[in-house]
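Throughout this chapter, every protein is written as a compact record of paired, labelled lines. The reader may check this reading against the record printed directly beneath this paragraph:
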Amino acid sequence: MTPSDAPQSRWSDLDRPPLNVPALRRGLLRPGGLWTVLDVVDSTGSTNSDLAGRAASLAEGAVLVAEEQTAGRGRLDRTWTAPARSGLFFSVYLTPGAVPVQRWGWLPLLAGVAAATGLARSAGVDTALKWPNDLLVTVGGQERKTGGILAERAGDGVVIGIGLNVSLRADELPAPTAASLALAGAVSTDRETLLRGVLRSLEQWYGQWRAADGDAAASGLQEAYAAGCATLGRTVRAQLPGDRTLTGEAVAIDGDGRLVLSSDDGLREPVSAGDIVHLRGAEGGLT
């Protein structure tokens, strides 16, 4: 018996139909476009791990989507799981080529801007960016996480994974701080529409960034990220490598994509990696 035939299995929710792969390929794969291959699998551990393991044989623009991800990974080795077909779990392989490697750190932030822009158009949901890689929506007046991004070097390029909670119901959320696009009032939770919207936005932003040789300011990426970043203007706590903690106001995103914190004594310190907690701000509370 196949999973789709099993009664009352995790695959039998009629509100969560499978992705139409031929339609996605017709809509996204075009001559001269960024996306070159699009595959959808019923279930896998991690789309990032799968693409990274095949990086040596991949052309730029490969897309891998999973209907279910059983060992999805976030930053700091956190796991990302959700019911089958309740979200979008996909990875893409990019080879920035002539862009200086020191500018590749902008790619996860670029993916965040692209996802937020694409979701605004396709889902009608305002999505904010929590530095460096979380996607936030507002539910009941509170900011909650609905998605995350993980970028990893692989072969001659970078694998970027995006996970989005789309149709999760309140009783399915993994944590009280989580949310889904449906709970945020999305006008559409059709996953094909959302996937096309995000990938087209990602193609546009990546093309602008590459054309500017990875210059985040010249491509408009730095300004766009700052405009959509919910972390800026907030008092935050940064848990840094080496068990060091820094608390201050997030005042800027610098030219290298780092979060600049201003402490009480007026000193400014850029943070390139760390776990960020929003302590106070316009919405109040902790995120």
